[in-house]
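debug: dumping io for the single-chain case to check the tokenizer round-trip. Nothing else runs in this session.
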Amino acid sequence: MIVAPLILCAGLPLALIAAFWIDMEKGDVHRRQLDEEMRSGRYDFGDQPTLLAVAQAISANDQDAIRAAAKAVPDLQAPGRDGTTLLCWAVRETWQRPQLVDSVKTLLSLGADPNFNNGHRDSFAMGNAVHGSARLLQSMLDAGGDPNARHEFGRPIILMNWYLGYYPNDQRARLDLLLDRGADINSAMPESESEFAGYTLLLYRTEEGRRYSSSAYADALHLLERGADPNRAGADGMTLGKMLMDHRAHFQRTRKNPPVEFATLWHDSLGRVVAREFKPVRFFVLIGLAAFIVCSVAVFYSHRAAHGRTAEERAAYEIGESAGEQAPREAKLPTDAELNMMAQKYFKQQGSGEQLRSPSREGELQAWHLAFEKGYTDGFKKTHPQQ
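debug: decoded output
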């Protein structure tokens, strides 16, 4: 009578562990299958044999096969799933497979239009080229790509140069390529943006220097040296001089040494701009205002929900958390760029992000991606404490 309960007690945990392991294996198999479908083109072009043949040749990086398959396609701008075009798909594939730039060049030589879009986000090839290698962007520009093109939500593509984490060492080269080919150095964010409304490229990079990376200050100095207008104001009236004063006050208030890049920007290029725009009284008023704004923002963000402000963000967090918990035990935490791609795949697979793809809801889509990435990281750390 005692033996049976003991066997049950010992066997139940083993059964639960086995079920959990099998479930994880299923999830991993499904993920690999989805990755393969995306990489081969079957996901986007599987129901159109002629387009799929071209996509598979692109995936194999076989230039002769691309030319042969393209003969059966009367219009290389023809859409696949969700409006995806062959060129935009190929451009995105180069993000992780740089050798496919050769296939992009072949497509362009066959008549694929670098400036074409059909209104769907997966057709904006130029908007996606700015996230790839400098070689990719140069190929698109050489084929007639517009350096002043806009991405699917209306931002000039030059402002998206730093948006994703692919090829970080090519960021300055991509910037110079666009400027050399005629991109407007004073390009600005749309005034409908929830933040950075009307900010020029110079203002945008300067603000990014304080928020995210001091290297953005170096970009700002580079833009000034190339002729950016420091007197252009954003929709909120912000100018470069005011912004630098705010940043300087921030470093003084927090007792942090300003980054070398900021000090160079301040002393070498903008001293006279600041001196001309500010009087002592205005200086102290602005410092006080900056302190008030920073404190208000800190209080606001400290009270934000941990997993998102909206039901959609919380749902994205839960999806990411579940995916992170189910990652194989030997897996490593993905990089930011890999998490971004993973979020796109999950949302595309489930159709969850389709309703957020309109230009008016770009901020919500980005918040969705961030919530997914945070959820994945938290879920991964729960089941992978050793990492």
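debug: round-trip ok. The chain has a mean pLDDT of 83.
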